[in-house]
Specification:
Radius of gyration of chain B: 12 Å
Radius of gyration of chain A: 33 Å
Number of strands of chain B: 0
Oligomer: heterodimer
CATH superfamily of the largest domain in chain A: Ribosomal protein S6/Translation elongation factor EF1B
CATH architecture of the largest domain in chain A: 2-Layer Sandwich
Largest sheet of chain B: none
CATH architecture of chain B: Irregular
Number of domains of chain B: 1
CATH topology of the largest domain in chain A: Alpha-Beta Plaits
Number of helices of chain A: 5
CATH class of chain B: Few Secondary Structures
CATH superfamily of chain B: Ribosomal protein S18
Number of domains of chain A: 2
Chain lengths: 178, 81
């Protein structure tokens, strides 16, 4: 118990909960990214921050270009930081060349973090349905093709059956006649 | 746990008589990382839809606007198209 008390930092009334989103350069390798994040976390902890949650989204396309970059590595943190540290952190992130962009937002009480995969996967499923024309046309075409194929098959079967009947008639008739 | 947001209720009513989707789904806050729901309230030109057409109440419209602006800053959603 004594050890735990030493490790855990006592919360002060000046502390506040934040959510921090970083966009890093896409050219960073996995090992370099880990190193970078470790350094950044160490910097946070040095200045009295606590990391509640960390989520690495990975490489993602940007909606628009940011300084010659078409993609970025997204990382999300949930932090508790002293309020006096805010400006210094902004300055630190601005100077860092690997961090393209960042957003820090204070959180309300009772905030629950939703994981990115859970959110985006259904959206990704919806996207093809949103581009209605192409998908719908394709589906219609496919359906029509199937129906046509079925109809053709039926016709063939009918033809075959009728031919058989005719053959049978002819044979019977032939038998009678011959 | 992501809740499914129901948008279908708004399509029944004429613009001006629609009901707030966030009120009906009992969503207290709008997340800027939730791009799927944000895009429902954006124009073909990626502008924020008018409250008259989307039917969102004033309180949620303000939250929506901040959410979309944050998402734009993070390049999750484009400024214009």
């Amino acid at each position: 118990m004594a050890k735990k008390k030493v490790e855990a930092r006592v919360l002060e009334p000046m502390d506040k909960k934040y959510e921090l989103v970083l966009i890093l350069q896409p050219e960073l390798l996995a090992s370099a990214l880990e190193k970078k994040l470790k350094e950044f976390e160490a910097y946070l902890v040095e200045n009295g921050g606590i990391i509640d949650l960390k989520d690495v989204w990975g490489k993602q396309d940007l909606a628009y270009r940011i300084g010659k970059h078409d993609a970025g590595l997204y990382v999300v943190y949930n932090l508790t930081l002293p309020t006096t540290f805010n400006q210094e952190l902004d300055e630190h992130m601005r100077i860092d060349k690997d961090i393209i962009r960042s957003l820090m937002v204070s959180l309300k009480e009772g905030y629950e973090y939703q994981k990115f995969e859970e959110e985006v996967l259904p959206a990704m499923k919806e996207e093809p349905s949103n581009s209605r024309n192409s998908s719908r046309n394709n589906s219609h075409k496919a359906d029509d093709g199937g129906k046509k194929a079925e109809v053709k098959d039926k016709g063939k079967k009918a033809d075959a059956a009728s031919l058989d009947e005719k053959l049978g008639d002819i044979l019977k008739g032939g038998d009678v006649k011959v | 746990m992501s809740k499914k947001v129901i948008f279908s209720t708004n399509q029944k009513h004429a613009p001006g008589k629609r009901r707030c989707t966030f009120c009906t789904n009992q969503m207290k806050d709008i997340d800027y990382k939730d791009i799927g729901t944000l895009k429902q309230f954006m124009n073909g030109f990626q502008k924020i839809k008018n409250r008259y057409y989307s039917g969102v109440c004033l309180r949620h419209q303000k939250m929506l606007a901040t959410g979309i602006k944050r998402a734009r800053h993070l390049a999750l959603v484009p400024f214009t198209n």
